[in-house]
Amino acid sequence: MSTTKAPTHPASKVTDIVVIDAGNESSASGDNTKGQTSRDGLQFQEEIPYVDEDWDAGGEDVCETADRRPREQLVTRIPAKVELKTLTHMAKRPAVDIEFQDLTYSVRNPGRRTGRRAILKAVSGKFRAGELTAILGPSGAGKSTLMNILAGYVSAGVSGTIKTNGHPRQLKLFSKLSSYIMQDDLIQPFLTVQEGMEIAANLKLGDELTSSEKHLAIEEVLTTLGLVSCRNTRTECLSGGQRKRLSVALELVNNPPVIFLDEPTTGLDIVAIKQCISLLKLLAQQGRTIICTIHQPTASHFQLFDQVYILAKGHCIYQGASQQLVPFMSSVGLHCPKYYNPADYVLEMIQGEYVENVKIMSAEIQNGKLSKKLDPVVIAERSVANSDGLKAVTKICRKETAAIMPAVFSHALMDSKDVNKEHEFPTSCFQQFSILLRRLFLQQRRNCVSLGIQLFHHLFSAVLIGGIFLQIGNDARRPFANVKFCLSVLVFFLYTHIMTPVLLFPTAIKLLKREYFNRWYGLKAYYMAITVASMPSMLLFGTLFCLVSYILSSQPLEPSRFIWFCAASVAVGFVSEGHGMIVGSIFSVMNGSIVAPASFSPLLALAAYGMGHGEAIEGSMSFLMGLSYLRYGLVAITDSLYGHNRPHLSCLGSDFEYCHYKDPNLLLRDLGMADTTTLGQILALFAFAVLYRFVAYLALRYRLTSEFSNQVLNYIAKILRHK
In sequence order, what DSSP letters do the residues of 272-298 get, joined into one string? Predict the structure, then answer.
């Protein structure tokens, strides 16, 4: 076998490798160094022989293989200082082993009409319950892609086989038993830790547990994850490590047997990273399947993982125990220097001038079909030597595992009652709606900065517009100035409510993706909740704006006329919000800020068309104007001021008694707004609101259920290229 020679590394790049073994920390290296000491006086652990486990060729059942695994393998690396707490009040779940074979994923080449680029190239592997697995690799190796595929987050363009407990994975069932914690610490703001946990428990557990049982489950999770001291702290005030732990706690509340984490150590210091990995290891030792991606761990962190799965150039170059990486590299001619971090070394040996090592290592491991496991005989010998220290830990660990693993491990996933329930979610749509609505109202009430900005914005704009059109509401000499006032009100409600979702919705979608994908609630309940939650503030601040501007511009002081004016203005804002939700659901903030004005500018031009010669508007133009909801809004606002049998206006300050537009009906005729009613225009606006929000719902649903990244822009660019 031809190999690429490894370089000799300078001594200045020495890193201690700490191996945690039943509470004894020692340094380890890839060479047979027994009894040697490091610079800090730490003993080296002897090299542990490994065995090749060809699980694919043998054809043995995945569940049987996992069940036959020596229990000592789980406990020999348990940190003695970590307290194992049994989560006795949590719902019981089946254990899940994940197996995949010949997994391939490709995407279209950007900027090209034909051809696809392979991200994953027929990789195989197996992740067991009770183990903490780390997916390693350089940037662009396919780490996050592999985990997204296994979690069901990505499905298009994927070929190969994925099994759970030896059976083909049923994605709908699997999603109920797994949770995906994304790299960004996306947590609902303006809630305390306790409130966030209670909302998560109510959504994810439903009637599965009583209120007291939910409270006990929350207490156990907060205690286990060390969040009791900050239970009354707002989420936006938490530290980076606390936010990571809270992200895990929110998903752990329903005790999922499978947890995926994308770069859980990003942004943490070295102490917080070790705490995070130790926590994940603890959760795995209780019988869960914990899979995480990690970019480049330190030596001490690397040894905490039960299994590592290393990717490079879309190939699997290693799968097995973290302690067996150094012996495996030695078998292919790559000798890791003493005191050197194996994780750093393997990443250096598969990039740049050493890229040929990828093919060698991938062939040796059969692209993931082989697994380098610890030799059970050696594990048993080492366990006997430390039997006194391990008996208590083994007993605790088995008790922990029993809390999640069923007595009969085989086919647990397929026989679980949890996944065969008739309803897709633990709670009904109405329960989800009420819980989400209460959460949204609580967040709005606590967001004092946003409330203050909205109050200032509406008051300042009302005073500004009212001051510009001061006391013109009853002046027959300047009726078109009052029409400009109506147009200004229309534009204010348009801009205010269309840009808010354009700027905020893309961020909200990121949070929605996490909660929706982890089966917290359905999209219908969420969409109804955000629709209803925005109404009170829109109505309150909109009425305040209308009141101030209405009085300053000296409009008729008639309660019924003012109510029509407010209703028409708020209706425009409601439709505009739906318009903004469509843009925000499809585009990013940057692209949406461009698309939103470009989309309503033609509608605004159609709304103002025909002023002064309304009777001369052609039929075709009337049809186009009818497609603009802003036209209905302008007609409704203007009709609320000049319609409803308004008496003749006064010619204020005029030396002549005649004013051409003294009769309000004459003005409405010249504006092309005759024979219309305010109620009819508001009903038309309501129809537009329903249509726009339905389209926004479809766009949001499409974005959540497929790989969506500005596909509309890509499609337009493709059409332009063909032209």
Answer: HHHHHHHHHHHHHHTT-EEEEE-S---
Q: Which residues of the chain have pLDDT under 50?
A: 1-84, 376-420, 708-710
Domain 11-420 - what CATH class? alpha beta
Q: Note the pLDDT of residue 74.
A: 36
**The two three-digit tokens of residue 597, written as one number:** 């004005």
E strand residue ranges, 257-414: 258-262, 289-293, 307-312, 315-320, 370-374
Cα–Cα nearest to 86, from 394, 304, 402, 407: 402
Token reading at 55: 């699980």
pLDDT of residue 22: 34
**pTM recorded for the entire structure:** 0.78
Q: What is the DSSP letter of 177?
A: G
The angle formed by the CA atoms of residues 592, 529 and 250, to the nearest 5 degrees, is 90
In this prediction, residue 47 carries a pLDDT of 40
- Alpha-carbon gap, residue 41 to 376, rounded angstroms: 29
User: In this structure, what token pair is assigned to residue 456?
Assistant: 């200032």
Q: Note every long-range contact of 499-502, with CB atoms under 8 Å and residues 24 or more positions apart, other chains counting.
A: 499/580, 499/593, 499/596, 500/577, 500/580, 501/577, 501/580, 501/581, 501/583, 501/584, 502/580, 502/583, 502/584, 502/587, 502/589, 502/592, 502/593, 502/596
Q: Which part of the chain has CATH 3.40.50.300?
A: 11-420
Distance, in Å, from the CA atom of 373 to the CA atom of 382, rounded to the nearest integer, reads: 15
What DSSP character marks residue 366?
A: G
CA-to-CA separations, 361 to 38, 305, 364, 565, in angstroms, rounded: 29, 20, 5, 74
d(CA 210, CA 216): 10
Please answer whether residues 321 and 374 qualify as being in contact, where contact means their C-beta atoms are separated by less than 8 angstroms: yes
Tell me the per-residue pLDDT of 422-432, one tens digit each, with 9 for 90 and over: 567 889 999 99
| Residue 485 near residue 501 (C-beta atoms within 8 A) | no
What pLDDT score does 183 carry? 82
Q: What is the pLDDT of residue 382?
A: 39
DSSP 60: -
- Residue type (1 letter), 423: H
DSSP states of 199-231 as a string? HHHHHHHTTSS-HHHHHHHHHHHHHHTT-GGGT
Residue 682: the pLDDT is: 96
Contact 596, 498 (CB under 8 A): yes
Give CA–CA dist 659/654, Å, rounded.
9
Angstrom distance (rounded) from CA 492 to CA 692: 19
* The pair of three-digit structure tokens given for residue 636, joined into one six-digit string: 């409704």
The answer to whether the CB of 300 falls within 8 A of the CB of 274 is: yes
Q: What is the DSSP letter of 648?
A: P
The CA distance from 718 to 723, in Å, is 9
> Do 65 and 373 form a contact (C-beta atoms < 8 A)?
no
All residues at 6 or more sequence positions from 523 whose CB lies less than 8 Å from its CB, including other chains: 516, 697, 700, 701, 704
Alpha carbon separation from 371 to 164, 321, 366, 367 (Å, rounded): 18, 8, 9, 10
Tokens 């995949």 — which residue?
Answer: 100
Residue type, 450: S
Angle between helices 429-446 and 448-468 (to 10 degrees): 70
CA 593 from chain center: how many Å? 22
Helix (H, G, I), strand (E, B) or coil at 718: helix
pLDDT digits (tens, 9 = 90+) for 530-569: 999 999 999 999 999 999 999 999 999 999 999 999 999 9
